[in-house]
Amino acid sequence: MHYIIDAFSTIFTPMGLLLNVVGVVLGILFGALPGLNGVVGVALLLPLTYNMHPSFGLIMLGGLYMGATYGGSISAILLNCPGTGEAACTALNGNPMARQGRAREALGYSVLSSGFGGLFGVIIMLLFTPVLAKFALKFGPAEQFLVCVMGLAVVGSLMGKSAAKGFFSVAFGLILSVVGMDVTSVNYRLSFGNMHLQAGLDLIPISVGIFAIAEMLSLLTNQVTGNLISEAQDDYKPMAVVKELARRWQILLKSSIIGTIIGILPGTGGAIAAFISYGEAKRSSTERKQFGSGAIDGIIAPESANNAAVGGSFVPLLSLGIPGSATSAIIFGALTVHGMVPGPKLFNEHTDVVYALMLGLLLSVIIMVVLGMSGTRLFTKILKVNVKYIIPAVIALSIFGAYSARNSLFDVLVAIVFGVIGLVFKRARIPVAPAVLGMILGSMTEQNLRQSMVIASAKGLNIFAYIVFRPISIVLLVLIGLLIIGNLKTNLRGDE
Amino acid sequence: MRKVVVAILSVLLVSTLLFAQGRGERDAQYPTKGIQFIVPYAAGGGTDSLMRLLAKAMEDELGQSVTIVNKAGGLGQVGLTELARAKSDGYTIGALSNLDHILVLFTSDNVSYDYDSLEYLGAINTTANIMYANTKNTGFTSVEQMLSYAKQNPGRLTVSISGKTHLAEVALLEQATGITLTPVMQSSGNDSLKAILGGHVDLAVMDKNFVAQVEGQGVVPLAAFSDERVVPVTDVPTFHELGYNIATETYRVMVAPKGTPAEICTLLTETIKKVSSTDEFIEKMRNMSENYRFLDAEQVKARLDNDYRAVEKLLEEVPGAFN
Q1: CA–CA distance, A438 with A152 (Å, rounded to integer)
Q2: Helices A433-458, A163-178: inter-axial angle, 10-degree rounding
Q3: What are phi and psi of B113, to 5 degrees?
């Protein structure tokens, strides 16, 4: 108990508070700028933490991670430029809502559901880490493969009117994920002897291109002038947003649970959490007809899920030493530099630091919600800026972001090429979200399937039996079935 | 407000270009400007963490910034390609991991540099990989138990590995003992850890740092791929002392592009030696579970030559070792 009191006194010292606020503010900024994200932000700030007390360092990095996960939704909603996969789903409904003049309302839903999800994930982490870590270990290649299949089944919710175009888009993403070194056989595929392609395509330049640059090119070619949104009529009432959210507690809770679970599974992360909960929300929501044109459930489901995944991703990190996401992998480095070995002994040997991180994250969520709620007016000011300033600024930032992901000029080229591809997709009315989904899940799906095949054949088992006859697999198969049936029903009824 | 932020950022971005403009001539008092330090691996990994520590210390000593730039991909090939063709003026240096470097030279396509495209400045650490077993599933607590089972059941045992170095180590082990294992390739050491902790594979080849992490979780280290016992896990035997001559060792080498003036290379080696040999630095390395061992330019080249010949020999005897 005294550890909790100690931790509280650490996070509420002026230094602790300041670093937390700095972390969250930088996080929101990194998340909101297209092309930058939590991974980049945490990597940049990591060296600063070397000379800090580990608790303070972790408080700042945790705040940054939390803030960045929410920040992505700001540019997704206002500019239709989600910089990362995490906010890709949010743009689908958030931006249409903003275009209806309800930008502040959309931002309100986003920050409050992010806050709810964030709190949920952190509280679950606080209370159940050891149990959940054991659960996470049960997910072997077979189970992970089925989780990926479940993610891919979400494509049905993303494809809009034409199933053919949706499948084309996801197939395009899957092919992109194959480029580079095949992890299983250690051979290059689709690299055409090009060194840069051998290194594989990175998700950041592609999503920056296909979302942000394509959106700007589209504004250019449509010869949009003046403001993005003609008249931002605003009868925004924060209390009404809170009430609306409270009415939708079921979807918030469900998405937060999905987000936390996906976050706990090592190697996944907020983007997959957002996609799966978006698919599930669309399947079960009463406003499924409005999905794609400003559905509230379409904002709150992915936003609560991706922030819930933050807390979840710390579960395997703290208890087993296995990071649950790319960002927590870098935070791992912040622990080891102070000589702390993430794993079962961490809780006993460095209880103070672990609790400071966990409780610090709780405070980060609160800071994030306060900043996000009071910032809605400020953020929406960008809608009053003339597009002729917005277009070059977004393109410049996108190119900077694409470069900074791997410090590669080749990635800048990739971003530009995918900007053009994204524009073609828009013109041909092919949805881009499925392509990003395919790109995120492709290599993970393949690798887990092939690992299952290698292990099954070494043990003399049939691959089908190896994957299916496991308790978790059966549950996952049922969920996959439900998602597919739900999508088929909506599509057959034609009430997209 | 947002406009202001964007404007400030734009100005900052543009202003970095001013600094990017290098000076034409090499000043007598090298370094006169910031040094770019290419790490050919992703941020957050073992090489990256150690090099960030070193870069920080070099920065304090040299009085100029030493900026880590991560250029990950292809076992270091992407970053090293960039480094090999960078200006050899001492303002671009980098690091590599010995076996990855050599394996790329032997097995990758379109490598635009070769073994002699780099000046090898020195090394500051040494580490080794260890073979681990999941005791809950297999009952193995020693190499002998593992070998006798593997001999009776060829191909039955699955071993998690990540990267070509591990593949080479498994191939060397198979060659030395006559067993057959089934490698299960993972994307990272953490994925290997998860697979073996969860009992999804029987064995794993992972860094010595995982010994502390697996303690008390039903996973035990069997033996190290090294000729001497590895600090701090000195209770783990080596394959070498068990009678199998498979000693691979991993160390990170600081490098500069070929043609970097000898006096600059010497200065860099001396700087690395000076900043890394302080108690504080060694303590920080120990916190990261890194063992300090300084090798100067000549010593590191001799080590690399040895590794080079070992890989050459393996590929002569088992041409399919990496397929």
Answers
A1: 7
A2: 60
A3: -120, 170
Class of domain B34-127+250-317: alpha beta
A8 token code pair? 């509280």
Q: Which of B158, B167, B190 is closest, CB to CB, to A322? A: B190
d(CA B93, CA B83): 7
Rg (CA), chain A: 22
Placement of tokens 């931006």 in the chain: A95
Q: Which of B44, B53, B109 is nearest residue A332 as measured by Cβ atoms?
A: B44
Interval B2-17: pLDDT, tens:
666 666 666 666 655 5
Domain spans of chain B, in order of start: 34-127+250-317, 129-224
CA distance A416 to A459: 47
- Residues B23, B55 contacting (CB under 8 angstroms): no
Q: Which pLDDT does position A40 carry in this prediction?
A: 84
- pLDDT beyond 50 at B90: yes
CB A409 within 8 A of CB A143: no
Please tell me the total count of domains within chain A: 1
Q: In this complex, which of B43, B158, B210 lies closest to A455 when CB atoms are compared?
A: B158
Provide the domain limits for residue A123: 2-493
- Taking CA–CA distances from A193, the nearest residue in chain B reads B110
User: How far apart are the CA of B298 and the nearest CA of chain A, in angstroms?
Assistant: 30
- Tell which CATH classification among 3.30.420.140, 1.10.760.10, 2.60.260.20, 3.40.190.10 matches the domain B129-224: 3.40.190.10
Kindly report, residue by residue over B98-146, the tens digit of the pLDDT.
998 999 899 877 788 999 999 999 999 998 999 999 999 999 999 999 9
Contacts of A336 in chain B (CB under 8 A): 49, 287-289
Residue B229 phi/psi, 5-degree rounding, is -60, 145
- Cβ <8 Å between B217 and A330: no
Q: Would you say A255 and A300 are in contact if contact means Cβ atoms under 8 Å apart?
A: yes
Instruction: Tokens 């191939």: give the residue.
Output: B171
In a mutational test of the A interface, the residue from B103, B191, B217, B289 whose CB has the highest number of chain A CBs within 10 Å is B191
CATH topology identical between B34-127+250-317 and B129-224 = yes
